[in-house]
From TrEMBL:
Keywords: Hydrolase, Pyrimidine biosynthesis, Zinc
Top-level EC class as recorded in UniProt: hydrolase
Residue span(s) of domain Dihydroorotase catalytic: 54-238
Presence of the UniProt keyword Glycoprotein in the record: no
Lineage: Bacteria, Pseudomonadati, Pseudomonadota, Alphaproteobacteria, Rhodobacterales
Keyword rRNA processing: no
EC number: 3.5.2.3
Descriptive protein name: Dihydroorotase
Record-linked InterPro entries: Amidohydro_3 (IPR013108), DHOase (IPR004722), DHOase/Allantoinase_Hydrolase (IPR050138), DHOase_cat (IPR024403), Metal-dep_hydrolase_composite (IPR011059), Metal_Hydrolase (IPR032466)
GO molecular-function terms, A-Z: dihydroorotase activity
Species annotation: Rubellimicrobium aerolatum
Amino acid sequence: MTTLIHNAVLIDPEAGTERPGALVLKDGAILDILPAAPESLDRFAAVLDADRRHLAPGIVDWGVKVSEPGERHKESFRSAGLAAAAGGVTTMVTRPDTHPAIDTPEILEFVARRAAQDSPVRVLPMAALTKGREGREMTEIGFLRDAGAVAFTDGDRVTEDTRALSRALTYARSLDALVVTHPQDPGLSRGAVMTSGKFASLRGLPAVSPMAERLGLDRDLTLARMTGARLHLDQITTAAALPALERAKASGLDVTAGVSVHHLTLNDFDVGDYRTFFKLVPPLRQEEDREAAVEALASGLIDCLGSQHTPQDEESKRLPFEAAAPGAVGLELLLPASLRLVHAGRLTLPALFRALSLNPSRRLGLPTGRLAKGAPADLVLFDMNAPFVLDRWTLRSKSKNTPFDGARLQGRVRGTWVAGRRVWPVPEDR
């Protein structure tokens, strides 16, 4: 079956271009890229007029938590997959911080089966770096890699035993496996729920200095240099960390970095009167840190932008700020929230999709993230100017813990394709 999508504005993050054009899809891949629709449409089994909306590579959201196994009431592969499709996410790279942690091939194979059965989008699981994510004994990295793990991480649980982390990185290097760390000094950050500053003092909340991120980053980069391991830093959110990251890249270390959309579009003032939907890990930063992170993403110093989707139920959020569970959902809101930066003139659309699609794909060795002949037909069609006010109860995720509830956003997904098959809107939503 050959499909034509024409009258679109094509966003090509690889070439850095934004231009009118049309795509021909066949057998799950992009067959051809045309400047416009041909005069005769008879040879196409399906034809879609994009009505001058933007068509881009599907989003690869790196760092999604799906709460299977253990907390399926918070998020399942079915609900997460629907939320992803509605948000233009065609690949979810999932975290291993489940109950139990994804630290054996058997648990990983269970997750892969559930994902294949229930999710309409691609799911690529990461596995735990250490057993139980306890930071003491490394997992069977080779067996987990053979079972389908695309990377290894303990999530936001920082490995305090430097020797154990060094051994894990050395072993990962021998297998050319990618390790993902969360740069933070655990001693300084333990128990903290805000970034230190006047606002945190006024609210009387335990806070952590931004230098805790710099200290954790320095350690992880030193170990990467010592072991030669491939390293991805999942959250770089402070101005203090950026010079060290820049030096590491300039020296040739095989290191990349990511940031969440919440840390690019919100700051610590948004916590307001103890609003727990704004409690995140790491905590929201000061405005100068947010500005620095935006500039680093625009320049390419920070490579990847994701949602860090972390579902929490109402009971765990309706608590005093210190006691509330951290995290926010973001699969469905990653694109419209990110478009705030485009509308503000801080990013171009090709630069945005470089961070959302191309760079995550390259780092993980995936063929996605490109508009090129032969590339997978993983696509998102969106109206970047369509305004709406978010009602969190309309989200497809089981959990509704978003800091954007009631926010004015721009950008509606009009279609999502995975391997050439349209997965959004689903029939009942068309």
